[in-house]
Amino acid sequence: MQPYFCKRIISVAEKYAIIVALCFLVVPYSSFADDAVMVPKMPEVVKKLASASKEISSRTIIKAANLKEYSTIILPELKSLIERSGFEIQAASKLRYRWRYDDLWEKTSDTPLADDLLLKDGSLKELVPMKRGYLFGDWQQLLQQQQEDLGQKARKIMWNIESVRWSQPYSEAEFRLVRNKKENKIAEFSGSLTRVYTRAVNPADRSIQLFREKLSFQTPAVLNGLSFLTLRFFGPDEDMLWEYSPAIKKVRQLTGSNRTDPLVGSYVSLDDLFVWSGKQEQIKVSGDLKLQSLLSPFYTLDMTRAIKDQANKGCVIINIKEGQESPISEATSSLFYDEKTTIQPSSVLMADAATFVPRFLWRVSLLSRDPYSLYGRQVLYVDVYSMLPVLKVVYDRAGRLWKLVAGFAGLALDIDSKIRFPFYSDIFVYDFQKHDSSLMSFRNFRYCSRLPQNVSLESLTPTGLAPQVAQHQEEPNPINDNFAQNGDGNNTNL
Q: 161-199: per-residue pLDDT in tens?
């Protein structure tokens, strides 16, 4: 029998052997910022990009002439756009801040939802509390998980995207939607977008409702009042969608499939909002999950300030406006084109203030389960740090390349509370089949942990879509009649 100290020596030796072996395994890897989890290194070409230091404001312009030099870190569909259209992007080596949210967010993310609550079809086994933070843990936890089923890990990433959004229980913003039209002119629309996660603003709500979303147009005058209302639930049931038309002064019910239809002749759909706004249970996630390093669109290299809304407790305002980029200040945004110049109908609507930055992205492939959806396969690229979708490639039902969607993300800081808020300044959509593009720009974001004083859930119902002087329904509809009861949690049978 071996003495105890001999066993102890053998045990220590084994530990050192394991450590040495691990060191050899991670040689091609480096830590993600200052964290311990190992991830692939950024390609060497990243070093050629312009410095992101505060003293240097230059950018690297990537165009057809030097595209080959940076091709390894550019999404193939974006590379194709640059080659064919003469489109240029500006890039920098990194952001000037480290993307993280806040202490409460990280505390919630440290206790992710149990794996057995995520079913194979992508749905959740039971209703979950809508807390601030990642539902299935942060990127470090996901990288550490040794799951053979990559599809299951991809589904966790998709639900993390959703939990980032319900971490801002109430959100609203003004938007400006621009598209090309004939005779070298552009068509411009404006309106507002509101989304509320009802169980997040009211934890006592036990309904199966996920969110209510209302998109309304204000200009041009002929479209003033045109509105779309979406009601989304946990579970397999499709979205409920209504439209108010000022032309016929009626509210009519559509199908959830209509969320992939283009808005007012543009190339943006409701499912393109925030890059991806599809329904979790209506997609099939494939198991070819990949981690890639690609140039990703950002609103600015600096963090932005979130200003407390003095009129509404629990609300902050992120004021996105045209102007010059500045660190920890009011957000700034400008469209990619010069409004004073003539725009060719086939040109790409792009922006001069935004910058592409190399980031690690999850590549997630999605297939629609809805046979009536215009979207076939979608390839989504999700920022590893933020869990925000930043790029999306859409194929039609015939498998043909259709769209490239890019979301220019930013992070705003409330200096007093130290809470940080993610947002998108612009959503860019390019249609490869029509060789044309649209740009949706946001400003005056308001995020709230509760409903603002001037907002009621009644305004986010089918009857609330129409102006008070013109409330009409095409025909009696029992679903619409019971909407308020079902939506507010007094009846969970819907």
A: 999 999 999 999 999 999 877 656 688 999 999 999 999
Q: Are 93 and 73 in contact (CB under 8 A)?
A: no
**Closest of 323, 293, 325 to residue 52, by C-alpha:** 325
Q: Is 23 helix (H, G, I), strand (E, B) or coil?
A: helix
Distance CA 329, CA 324 (A): 10
Structural domains of the chain, with CATH: 44-51+58-322+347-460 (2.50.20.10)
Q: What is the pLDDT of residues 281-302, one digit of tens each?
A: 999 998 889 999 999 999 999 9
Q: What amino acid occupies position 434?
A: K
Residue 19 identity (one-letter amino acid): I
Instruction: Round to whole Å and give the CA distance between 106 and 202.
Output: 22
State yes or no: pLDDT of 236 exceeds 60.
yes
Going by C-alpha positions, the residue among 222, 257, 209, 208 that lies closest to residue 461 is: 209
Per-residue burial over 103-141, b = 16 or more CB atoms within 10 Å of its CB, e = otherwise: eebeebbeebbeeeebeeebebeeeeebbbbbbbbbbee
Rounded distance between C-alpha atoms, residue 428 and residue 299, angstroms: 12
How far apart are alpha carbons 268 and 442 in whole angstroms? 14
Q: What does the chain come to in residues?
A: 494
Q: Give which of 391, 393, 378, 389 is closest to 432, Cα–Cα.
A: 393
Measured distance CA(482)–CA(494) in Å, rounded: 10
The closest of 13, 72, 77, 64 to 437, measured between CA atoms, is 77
Q: Could you please report the per-residue DSSP string of 10-70?
A: HHHHHHHHHHHHHHHHTTTEEESTT-SSEEEPPPGGGGGSPP--TT----EEE-GGGHHHH
pTM: 0.84
Closest CA to 352 of 439, 274, 263, 272: 439
The SS3 assignment for 36 reads: coil
